[in-house]
Fold these 2 entries.
Entry 1:
Amino acid sequence: MFTLKSAIGNYIIINDKKYSYFAGNNYLGLANHPQLKKEAISAIKKYGVNFSASRETTGTSELHLQLERLLSEFKNKEDSVVFASGYMGNKILLNTLKDRYSAVFTDESAHPSILDGIPSNISNVFFYNHCNAEHLETLLKKNNKYKPLIITDGIFALTGEIAPLNKIYPLAKKHGAVLIVDDAHATGVLGEKGRGTCEHFRLDRTGDIFQSETMSKALGSYGGFISASKEFINKIRENSSVYIGSTSLPPPVTAAGCASLKILKKHPKLRVSLIENAEYIRNRIIKMDFNTTCDNTPIIPIFLNSQQSAQGLSDFLKENKIIVPHVKYPVKMDKFIVRITVTSIHTKDQIEKLLDLLKKWRDKNGID
Ligand SMILES: Cc1ncc(COP(=O)(O)O)c(C=O)c1O
C-alpha cells in the first residue's frame, strides 16, 4: 500500500510528504508518546532487546511481573498473563477452556484469530448472522445436544460495531454457554475506565466472561494479555502451549505497556476526547447520507457498492494528503469499505478537512 517513513501519529510521512492519518488503531495516540518511548529505551539499555526465552523457562523478568500487576489493577481482576501476540489470545482461551464445550457459536464476521484459535478436534462450529442475538438463540436451541461456547469480537475491526453483549450474555447464561469476547479494539476505548466491552454493558462485575485483549492498539505498545481469576491464569501458565512454547514479550514493549497503563490511569480525558472526536465525525458522515454504522466507536466505515468506488474515494483523499484506506481484510463482508479511524490526538482542522473532502467527493460521486 505504502511504506512509512515516520512514526504513527495524526500525521505520517510517505515519500518525504506529510499526510494526515486516519488509519491504523492508535486510538489514544500513545504509539509515539514520549513517555512510552523513554521507558522503552531505558528497558533496552537495562535488558537488551530480547529475553530470548519462554516465560516458563528463563524468560520471566521483573518487567513482565510489573506489567501483569498493572494490567490486573487496570482490569480489576485477580491476575493477568501477557504473551507475545494479541492474535494468540483467542487460541489460548479456546484451548484452556476445552473441557467446558463441545461446539463453538460465533459471529459470521468474526476476526480470523477467532477461527484460527478453534482447536482442531472441534468440528461443530455454528455461525450466527452478524450481531444477531436472535439468530444465535435459534442456533443454540437447534443444537442443544452440544455444550456451547460463544465467542465474538467486542468491537468489530472493520465496521466499528459493538457486539450486542447485553443480549448475548443472557443467552449464554440461559443455555449454559461459556462466553469469550475478543476485545482487541475495545481495550482502553470502551467503558468508564476503558476496560472494554463488558464494562461498556456493565457486565464486567459478573466475572464469568473471558476477554482476550491486546496492548497493540489503544494502549500503543504491543502484545496480548488475558486478565481473570488467579486460578484461571495459573491454568494458562501451566497448560498453554502458546504461553509455554514462545519467547516472552521483549523488554521495550513490556516497558512501554507499563508506561501506557500509567498514562491511561492519569489521563482519563484521553478516552473522552477519543469518543467525542469519533461521535462528531460519525454524526457528520451520517448527515452526509453515507452508509455507515452507528455505535460510537473510533472505527467509522464508509460502505460502498464497488471496489472501484472504495478505491476511488481512498485515492481521492490521498491526493489531498489524507490517508484513509480501502481495507481488504479476511473477514466476511458484503460491501467495500473505506475505513476511517479516529484518535484522541486528531485536531479540529484535520477533522474538518477530512469532512470537507468527503462532502466534495460525495457531491461528485454519490454515496454508492
Ligand atoms: C479483533 C482482533 N483480534 C485480534 C487481533 C490481533 O491482535 P494483535 O495485532 O495485537 O496480535 C486483531 C488485530 O490485529 C483484531 O482486530
Entry 2:
Amino acid sequence: MDIRTESSTESSLEILRVWPEAAICHGFIGRAGGVSTGAFASMNLSYWVGDDESAVDANWERIRREAPGLNLVARLNQVHGNVVHAATRDTAALRPAGDGLVTAEPGVMLGIFTADCVPLLMVDSRCKVAGALHAGWRGVIADIADAGVRAMLKLGARGSDIRAAMGPSIGQCCFEVDAELGDRFGREIAGAENHTRIGRPGKAFIDLRAVVRDQLERAGLAPANITSVGPCTRCASDRFFSRRAAAGTTTGLQMSFVGFAA
Ligand SMILES: [Zn+2]
C-alpha cells in the first residue's frame, strides 16, 4: 500500500492526508489557520461547543476554499456509542445521535469531530463506499470499528478492499486512566492487555489506536490496509485540539472527513 502523508500548510492550515487518489476526498484537519480564539483557537469547525457562530462560519468558508469537496458534510451528535448511520444527500443535514457515518453516495462527505478521541476514516474505492468513525474509549469498548466496517459491507464494500486511517488522537504517552479502566479493556477486548501498561499506583496507560487496529483486523481488514497518521494530540496541542491538554475543559474540535468526489 502506497501511503503518502501530506501536509498542506498554505495559510498555516494543516490537513493530513494518507490516500493518493484524487477521487478520495479526505483529511485530518489541524487546529491552525482559523479565526476562532481562546480555547477554540483557531480552526474550530464545530458549532456545538460554545464558539462564536460567525467565527465558525468563517472557518468553514476557509476550509471549503482549501478543500472544495466539502460542500455537503454529514455530521453527528456524537455520544460515545457504536451506532453508525448511513448518510445520503437527503439525510446529510439531519445530524442524528451516533458515532459513525457511512455513505455510498459520491459527493456526500462524512465529518467526525474530535479533541483526543480517535478519528477513523475508511474507504473502499472499488465501490466508492466511505466511512468515518469517532472512537473514544467508550466507543472502543463498544467496538465502533466493527460496527463501522459492517455498515460499509451493507453498502457493498468488501472487507479485503477497505482501507482505514486513524488520525491525530491521544497517544499512550498521555492517555493515563484509572487502572480499573485498563483492566476493563483487558477483560472486554481481546488482546487489549497488550496495549495497556501499568502507570503510577492505581493508573494505567492505554494505546487506543493499537486497540482499534486489532478491532479492524478482527472485522476483516488486511493489516497492510490499516494506517495511522499524526501525533499524540496532547503532546502536539499546538497543532491539534486536545481536551486533556486543556485540563478537561471544553475546547474547539478538529474535523476529519472522507467521501468520494461527485
Ligand atoms: Zn502524548
